Amino acid sequence: MTPASNQVYPIIWHNDSVSLIDQTRLPNEYTVVEIHRSEDMALAITTMIVRGAPAIGVAAAYGVYLGAREIETDNRNEFLQRLEQVAQLLRSTRPTAVNLFWAINRMMRTAYESVGTVAELKQTLLETAQTIHAEDLQTCQAIGDNGLAVLPKTPEKLTILTHCNAGALATAGYGTALGVVRSAWREGRLARVFADETRPRLQGAKLTAWECVQEGIPVTVITDNMAAHCMKQGLIHAVVVGADRIAANGDTANKIGTYSVAIAAKAHNIPFFVAAPLSTVDFALSDGSQIPIEERNPQEIYQVGDTRLTPSGVEFYNPAFDVTPAELITAIITEHGAFAPGELAKSQPKQVV
């Protein structure tokens, strides 16, 4: 059995501010950014200083509190009106990750339902953000252990492919897809992680690989178009990815390229798992065609650092996510167990708050 040693926490509340690991500078530079204002938190989410659906939700919750702290009034109605403006600013940052909206809505519901003075209300909002933060860490640890229970029983030591980064950096800590990897590593069931490079922002090469190196987990980085070849060679026993939004029928939006991996896994009879908290399931959407897909700056495609990769005059299309149909997904691993996509609705009444 390999002991867990995760010490990566991308979001920390400390000295009345939020400390964020600047993920745009990894793996070459470890930098912490201090966030004191809601506008700065919105910018950090937009520019992907903080990223990953659960982490975005935690960051947005603190962003609501930081905005509340800036409002100078003792009038409750005026306070709530101005807090709505803060919430709308934060909602506008990343359209696909449903955890963002879930966390903001939970904070706003707290604001409207709590009693007391404005000062007491602000304190309640801070406590709610801290609760969301703590719950996410516990949720990820449960996802990891529930994932371990449904991984293939053979071989004893598995090689797991993942796409993008759904690790500690994408959550409050531990991770969703990498939470499953960490639990497998802890129990001696993991031989190696294959990390898709994940173009165009390279979160797999930069972030997933960095996390694994920190903990001594064997990791091999491959380009995205090598995944099917590795499967054909018998190098992959299971695929585990995260999610930014899951429709009620199990259709799953994740980082662009995930759909291709799912098709390849199906062709090679390899189980394909999605690991995500139930807060990522948007029961208001009947299927994945209704999930909004963020399109990002084309510079992510045509430039790396200061080097331009393409000739002038070409056009670009840069969707940040694609949708994997439910029929390609073996199970969705949540903090309350692993469900076949069609069984997600059974968890709705009790879990979605």
How would you describe the overall organization of this protein?
There is one protein chain. The chain has 353 residues and is of the alpha/beta class. 39% of the residues lie in helices and 17% in strands. It has helices spanning 38-46, 53-70, 76-91, 98-113, 118-150, 177-186, 203-215, 227-232, 258-267, 299-302, 348-351, and strands at residues 11-14, 17-21, 32-35, 158-162, 190-196, 219-222, 238-241, 245-247, 252-255, 272-275, 281-282, 303-304, 307-308, 321-324, 331-334, 337-339. Strands 6-5-4-7-10-15-16 form a seven-stranded mixed β-sheet, sandwiched between helices. A four-stranded mixed β-sheet has the order 11-8-9-14, covered by helices on one side. Strands 1-2-3 form a three-stranded antiparallel β-sheet, covered by helices on one side. A hairpin with a 4-residue loop joins β8 (245-247) and β9. α2 (53-70) packs parallel to α4 and α3 runs antiparallel to α4 (98-113). It starts with 10 loop residues before the first strand and ends with a helix. The relative contact order is 0.12.
